Each structure stands twice: as structure tokens, then as C-alpha cells.
Amino acid sequence: EHALTALLPAEPVEAGWRLARATHFAGMMSDEPAARLAAFGRGLRAADSVRKVAPGRVEGPFWWATNALMLADAKPGPAALVLAFRARAALLKAGEIDERFHGAGPLRVLGRFLARAPWFVGGDWRHGETLLREASDLFPENPVTRLYLAELLLDTDRPDEARAELETLLAAPTDPDWRPETERDQRLARQMLDRLSHAA
């Protein structure tokens, strides 16, 4: 598979995963349900094309899984359960290829999935926490990982630990490559800290 990847022109592969990433973020930013579904569907197809022609590249399974999980969340039902199972397998594959990709993205996204998913689709918040902490150890200043870990800590009744994660997120310098995510997560972190202050 690696030999096949080496023979392919780089441009179609790059274009495919970049489209999958762009449509993923476009879907997340949209408030229109139909537009979200359409964006995640396009991302799924783009990432699938990368998986088929370049199976040794991490971008295909990672962006396929992120779009699949968002699509499953946006349109629940039996088909969503199938997508969730397949996304979990794709994230495991992405982690085998390069767990450091996209700021430890395979660990971060799988960790959040396990933390939030019901048991019958493989949910296990303790395993999810382990993966999120591994991702945070690899990239301590990644804002998305900090936010996901804070959410898990709140869900498991550990507000002091959650507050520490949120304060660390807000104090970290902004990486220009992560500016949109950082601004979004800083806003959410401030909202979470405000709720914690009122609950104290």
C-alpha cells in the first residue's frame, strides 16, 4: 500500500483531505441542519477517496472519522450507529499510522467519542479520559483537547480539575494554525468557567 501511495501524484490526495477538513469545519460552523448534513456528507466522500487511493496516509481515516461522527450526531438512528462503529475503527487506524497527527487528533477524537458514547457502541469514559490525557501530554497547549478533557471532568463531577484545565486553556498562547479553534474554545471555556462560578 505504501508503494501505491508513493506512485500517486500528491495533488489529488492533498486536495481530497483538505476538502474533507474544510467541509468538516464548515459543517460545524453552520446553524442550518440541512447545510450541516450536506457538508459532513461531502467531507465523508472526500476522505473516503483518500482512504482508497492512499491507504497508508493518516489524513483519510482521520477526516473520514471526524465527518462520520458529526454526521451520526446530526442524524441519529440505526445508520448513525453503523457510522459510529466505523468511525471508531477509522480512528484506531489513524492512531496506528500517526497518533500525533493534527495535534494528537486520533487520540483526542477517539477519547471524546469513548467519553460520550453509550456503552453499546463502545463508550467507556475512563478509557476516553486516558486517551485525552495522552493527547494533552503530547500537545499540552492544544485548546481542543483541554476543552474536551474539561467537559469529561465536569461530567464526572470533578469541577476543580475542570476549572484548572479551562484556566490553562485560556492562559496558553495562540497558535496561528489553530486560531479559529482557539477562539471558539476560549469562548466556550469562559462560558463554562462562568457557570462553575455561579454554581459554587
What can you tell me about this protein's structure?
By secondary structure, this protein is mainly alpha-helical. It is 80% helix and 0% strand. The chain has ten helices and no strands. Helix 3 runs antiparallel to helix 4 (59-74).
Strand content: under 5%
Helicity level: over 70%
Sketch the major β-sheet. none
Mean pLDDT: 90
The Cα radius of gyration reads 17 Å
Structural class: mainly alpha
The N- and C-terminal alpha carbons lie at a distance of 55 Å
The helix/strand series, from N terminus to C terminus, equals HHHHHHHHHH
Dominant shape? globular
Our count of helices gives 10
**How many beta-strand segments?**
0
Task: List low-pLDDT spans.
Answer: 1-9
State the main characteristics.
single chain, 200 residues, mainly alpha, 80% helix, 0% strand, disordered N terminus
List strands and helices in order, with pairings.
Layout: H1 2-7, H2 10-29, H3 33-53, H4 59-74, H5 78-98, H6 101-116, H7 125-138, H8 143-155, H9 159-171, H10 179-199
Outline of the structure:
The chain is mainly α and 200 residues long. The protein has helices spanning 2-7, 10-29, 33-53, 59-74, 78-98, 101-116, 125-138, 143-155, 159-171, 179-199.
